[in-house]
Amino acid sequence: MKRAIFVAGLLALGMTAAVAESGVVEQRQTLMKQMGGETKTTGGMLRGQEPFDLAKAQAALKTISENAKKAPGLFPESSKATTDKTEALPTIWESKAAFESGFAKLEQDAQAAITSIKDEASFKAEFPKVLQNCGTCHKTFRKS
C-alpha cells in the first residue's frame, strides 16, 4: 500500500513537472509572439508602408524591453527536453551566457531607443539597432 502511494506520488510529481514545463514553453512563445507583433508594426513604419507614429514606436520598444527582461527566465534547463515542440535550439542551454547576454543587449538597446527616438528620422536611425538583436538571436538560437 505504501509503495503504491509512493509510486502514485512520483507519477503525480512527474506530471506536474511536465505541465509546468509546458506552461513555461507557452509563456515564452506568447512573449516572442508579442515582440514579433511589435516588430511588424514598426517594420511597416520603417519601410514607409505605415505612417510614423511616435506613440506606437515607444509602446513597441517598451514591450520589447520588458519582454527581453522576462525571456531568459522562461528557458530553464528543465525545458530543454521540450525543444521538439518549439523553435528553440539546444544551443540555448549549451551557450546560456551568450543567450542571456543577447537579451540583456536587446533590453539595453530598446531602452536607449526609447530615450533617443523623438521623430521619424531618429526612429529610422535607431530602431534597426534594436531589430539587429532579434536577427542575431534567431540565427543562433532558433530553428529556421
TrEMBL record:
Span of the signal peptide:
1-20
One biological process GO term for this chain? electron transport chain
**Listed SUPFAM superfamilies:** Cytochromes (SSF47175)
Species of the source = Microvirga alba
Q: Which GO terms describe its molecular function?
A: electron transfer activity; heme binding; iron ion binding
| Alphabetized Gene3D superfamilies for the sequence | Cytochrome c/b562 (1.20.120.10)
What protein name does the entry list?
Answer: Cytochrome c
PTM annotation: Binds 1 heme group per subunit.
One GO cellular component assignment for this chain's record is: periplasmic space
On whether Chaperone is a keyword of this UniProt record, the answer is: no
Q: Where does heme c bind?
A: 134, 137-138
Which key words tag this protein in UniProt? Answer: Electron transport, Heme, Iron, Metal-binding, Signal, Transport
- Keyword Cell division among record annotations: no
**Sorted alphabetically, which InterPro entries does this protein's record hold?**
Cyt_c/b562, Cyt_c_II, Cyt_c_prime
